[in-house]
Amino acid sequence: MAAVKRLSISGYITRLVLFFLITCTAIIIGLSAGPVKIGFNDLVSTFFSNNANQTFTQIIFDIRMPRILYAIAVGGGLSIAGAVFQAILMNPLAEPYILGISSGGTFGAVLSFLIGASFLGTQLFSFAGALVVMLLVFVLGKRFGELEPNVLLLTGVMVGAFFSAAILLMMTLLNDSLRTAIFWLMGNLSIADKDNLKFVLPITFLVSFVLILNSNKYNLLSLGADSAKQLGMNIKLFRNVTYLLTSLMIGTLVSVSGIIGFVGLLIPHLCRMIFGVDNRIVLPASFFLGATYLILCDTLARTIISPSELPVGAVTAIIGAPAFVYLLRKKFNTNIG
Description:
- The protein is mostly helical.
- The protein contains 14 helices and two strands; from the N terminus they run αααααββααααααααα.
- It has one domain: Orthogonal Bundle (ABC transporter involved in vitamin B12 uptake, BtuC), CATH 1.10.3470.
- Strands 1-2 form a two-stranded antiparallel sheet.
- α1 runs parallel beside α13, α3 packs across α13 and α4 runs parallel beside α6.
- The longest helix has about 35 residues.
- The protein is globular, with a radius of gyration of 20 Å.
């Protein structure tokens, strides 16, 4: 691991404010863009005036703002989860969905479509499926009583592949719910119920805050397990708690958005290339830039073929895949040079 430079409190706060302002800019863009264009003055009037346009008020507070809040939770949560998994597994390709948790959540959702459950039932089934896979991978990913990064990663891939096969099998039995299942597989923020924000946002913010508070421990872990133990870290407990907390957050997010790929893989890599390897910066940067990325992708998804819309998971994949390849080639060429 490269040397971590000393970070002053003023420098840290300055960076956090910068990340926050970038996300605020994306929020303004997301509130303004759509089939009905809303100018900046109308936005200000809607939030701060008693004589605001009622149509604009309804569009902003009933349609666009809930989707933006979901984009913040899902984009930020997946990105910080990706950064954390890459740290505890010491593998740059680790990301939230590679551990199979998303496949478990999707399995639960598709199963609910198959039995005709309500939307609330779908979310409960999805969360339960993610929870089952989380615990299964947790138990099978241990070696000599401790989480072994390579074993955990391979276990997640295999369990995820099994549940993905089960999902395809169930989809052959669907008829009227097939389109909904496909949208869930591709990732879509429009399927989420805005009433569930009161559960999704607190869980995401609380878990992300706990992860950021422990960011310096991820720096120590990057030195290697033996070095971290010599510095007084309880590796077993720390990895277990990190895995369970982060997986709980991912299960919550998958239950409302379906599978949205490349966010948890691309954004942490981008943050490390821009800001270095210090997890005290990488983790909050991943959260804010992940939120920004998903807000902009969702805005593009609902405006590019307006009044219809694309699944946001398709947009993140179309943009994220070539961007990730470019970052890898640039990093490789830099190391060669």
